[in-house]
Design a protein that fits this description.
The chain has helices at residues 6-11, 57-74, and strands at residues 19-22, 26-30, 38-44, 80-82, 98-102. A 5-stranded antiparallel sheet has the order 1-2-3-5-4, with helices on one face. It is an alpha+beta fold.
């Protein structure tokens, strides 16, 4: 845990958030600044600054095995996942998180 990380504080329930999913390894909650009608974040409970810091296959698998469970629960069959890694790529919170967005048509290139 990073003492100044907002996502660590959410995981530890120091900052309130309504989890739409939680298991032993990850939590998911709605994005505060959604860019789609459905836009939530999936984050590991263990702190990693970014994708570059993931230290095990299990950590990666924990994040990505949760996504289909959540989308199935929400009745979502088509969605976009995004991981921003580093400031110039748009990462603003330095605790790895996957954006899951749905509910509208997406275009490519993403931006």
């Amino acid at each position: 845990m990073s003492s100044d990380c907002i996502f660590c504080k959410i995981v530890n329930k120091e900052i309130p958030a309504e989890f739409i999913y939680e298991d032993d390894n990850v939590v998911a909650f709605n994005d505060l600044n959604p860019t789609a009608p459905i836009h939530f974040l999936v984050i590991p409970k263990k702190h990693y600054d970014s994708l570059n810091d993931i230290d095990s296959k299990e950590a990666f698998a924990n994040i990505f095995s949760a996504i289909p469970k959540i989308t199935s629960k929400l009745g979502i069959k088509e969605y976009r996942t995004v991981i921003n890694t580093g400031k110039s790529a748009g990462q603003t919170v330095f605790h790895i998180h996957v954006h899951v967005m749905a509910g509208r048509e997406f275009t490519w290139p993403a931006g």
